[in-house]
Amino acid sequence: MGRLRAYLAAVGGKRRGNKARGTVHPLPDIRRLKFAAATVFVASVSGSASYAQSGPFAGMAGFWSGGGTITLDDGSTERIRCRATYAVGAGGSGLNQSLTCASDSYRFNLSTNVVAQGGALSGTWSETTRSINGNLEGRGANGNFQVTASAPGFTASLSLTTRGNRQSVVIRSDSAFRGASISLSRS
């Protein structure tokens, strides 16, 4: 009985559901909850994209896919397939990137967290298939970004250019992974 009193107090003394039987039907509440969750999701996705338009990472949010080539330390090249996800925040000055590429014999998973202040970029990166991570620094604006990623015993340069729904990513390194040239399109 105490629970019923607490419930009635919470809903303003009104009992929900079928008035004839006095039962409570949770189905309308579940529908409202689903609708509210969908509304919040749509608002956050559409709101973040328009909010991000003011920063240097404007227009990058979303899912991208494509392919290119990778060059290994022995000079051999292989075709790769890639997927990228970009989440833009902090008024368009923050970027979380996830780039996964694979060929028949090689795979890498690159994640970055980047912040822009003025034209300067800084942040962290990790490559999960080799358990390596480090810092990155660089410059960029207007869809053109040049970054140096470093870790103990490893340095790579990354160039990223975005024009509308097309993107070019070029990575160069002096390690077993010499570089990659990737073209992506927004999905």
Would you write up a description of this structure?
- The protein is 18% helix and 52% strand.
- It has helices at 2-10, 27-51, and strands at 62-72, 77-89, 94-102, 107-117, 120-127, 132-141, 144-151, 154-163, 166-173, 177-186.
- A ten-stranded antiparallel β-barrel has the order 1-2-3-4-5-6-7-8-9-10.
- The radius of gyration is 24 Å and the shape is globular.
What characteristics describe this protein?
single chain, 187 residues, alpha+beta, 2 helices, 10 strands
By DSSP, the count of extended strands is 10
Order of helices and strands: HHEEEEEEEEEE
Helix- and strand-based class?
A: alpha+beta
State the shape: globular
Physical arrangement of strands within the biggest beta sheet: 1-2-3-4-5-6-7-8-9-10
Rg is: 24 Å
Report helical residue fraction: 10-25%
Biggest beta sheet attributes: 10 strands, antiparallel, barrel
Number of helices: 2
Low-confidence segments, ≥5 residues, pLDDT <50?
25-52
Mean pLDDT: 79
Beta-strand content bin? over 45%
Distance from N terminus to C terminus (CA atoms, Å) equals: 55 Å
* Assembly context of the chains: single chain
